[in-house]
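README: folding subset

This subset contains proteins for which both the sequence and a predicted structure token string are available. Records are stored as plain text. Below is the entry for Cytochrome c peroxidase, mitochondrial (368 residues), shown exactly as it appears on disk.
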Amino acid sequence: MAASAPRLARLGAMLARQAAPMQQQFRMLSDKAAAEAVKAAPEVAKAESASSGSKIRGFQAILFGGLGAGFLYGYSLFTSKAPESGPLAGPPALPVVTKTSKPGDYPAVRASIADLLDNDNYDDGSYGPVLVRLAWHASGTYDKKTGTGGSNGATMRFGPECEWAANAGLAVARGLLEKVKAEHPWISYADLWTLAGVVAIEQMGGPVIPWRPGRVDDADGSRIVPDGRLPDATQGAKHLRDVFHRMGFDDRDIVALSGAHTLGRCHADRSGFVGPWTNAPTTFSNLYFQELVNNKWKPKKWDGPLQYEDKTGTLMMLSSDLALLSDRTFRKWVHLYAKDEEAFFKDFSVAFGKLLELGVPFPQQPAA
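--- output ---
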């Protein structure tokens, strides 16, 4: 009923505006009738009385007829679907859910996520890559020294975190998962976002990622950390170490997690960069490392920020990607993963699972 109050207020105001001319007309007619009654001669009083009675009955018909029409019109507005725009527009409609799952039914949540992934009208035909990015960015703000940040709290629901440049475009992923949240209202957003990344990787051919529930949602954005903790694609090896070592990762983890660039593409209206890293952006594989090693990369000639392209101009790499080749320690892991997909899958599974759990005070329970 609380959600109906604004709509009732708008309806009342509209009906009042529509009734105002009728009220004015009624007052004018009443004043005129009173003046005529004063001037009338006694001998015509009886006739005038009959006439006045007729007018009054006419006024009553107009009045009650108008009120009845107004009531029916108002009732139809209240009971019909709210228009999508205009002064009587209601709030955005929530997904229609006929049945919700039982608390703790994580296989059902996984199935709901998997059902949303394929969409020919989005990017390369899958929402999988953007869901992986959501899980990554929701978790990658952790600082092991202060114990702040990480996936617990799902603070990206609030500003300013949702408005950070690094999170541009992730409203698509958050909005997409609202349908899953409606079907399974008992799961926290923090658990849902991280599980969505896990399911997306597995559905796109990647390794099984260890995941367990237990994250809780913050009520507000008071625990949002300062901007700048997520990787900057324009930076080099030192920056990568600063970001990942802050979370507790080593150099091997850095290269393994960078392998997530085998998925998806950059968008000029989000990061400013454009293009995919591989020719199979919806398949999880070691192709990113193969492209990195086997192609020759040259600066792209365009008006956008510095990025690199292969000889065809189809694929791209960022400065942070090429830093993996220029740094001796990083480079040895790049070459290993380019040759051995199984080794990459194993290391990525461990590192990504760790990323999703940073800063989460888990209760004692088995993995889902």
